[in-house]
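Could you help me review a protein record that somebody else here produced? This is what I was given.
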Amino acid sequence: MFRAIVAAMSETVKWIGGTSIVAVVLLASAAIAGNALDAQTPTVSTVAEAPTTEPAPPVVTDVPAAAPAAETFAIKSILPIEGAIRYGEWHWNESAAPAEGPLVVTVDLEARVLSVFRDGHEIGAAAVLLGTEQHPTPIGVFPILSKERHNVSEKYGNAPMPWTLRLTWDGVAIHGGSTVERGYASHGCIGTPDAFVSKLYAIASKGDRVIITRGKKADVGTPLATL
């Protein structure tokens, strides 16, 4: 079975020896008027302290964060469907799955089948309409961005697209309102039978993952990356 699966330097100056020493000696004499001793010129000396330098900041090197490890889920059981699923055919059976658990949707573009898993157990499968070469359905892992119960496409002539589970903001979604028959195609969306997609819509939540692949085989025990 196929399953889609970021200080400045300061200078302190001290002044040393700041007084003037003047010695004056007077000699009395009848013939000599007296001599004055030259006053000593005060000596002023400055002593500068060694500049203080702040420690350089540590060099920090940005280290890229490690990429998150891919989340996976393993297929625990699949529905007992015999043969290929034909256009217009769908299956839904929750008996083998727990009432709660992570929901993952897979779409295989080659088999043209959408499967729904809860806690690794397949609870639904249906044949679906897909895009064309000119308007392909993209491959990858897509979180459900929004749910719109009564969506109408302004891009495609107000076409009704009920039970829309939006996968991209440029128009790709899982939705109802499609004629799921041979010879029909979409503009990249995943067209699903109304009775089936209404069940999926009721249990799907924003953020649930949709894995779209082409021809990837998966069986019980197969781990599928959801990131």
Q: What stands out?
A: The mean pLDDT is 75.
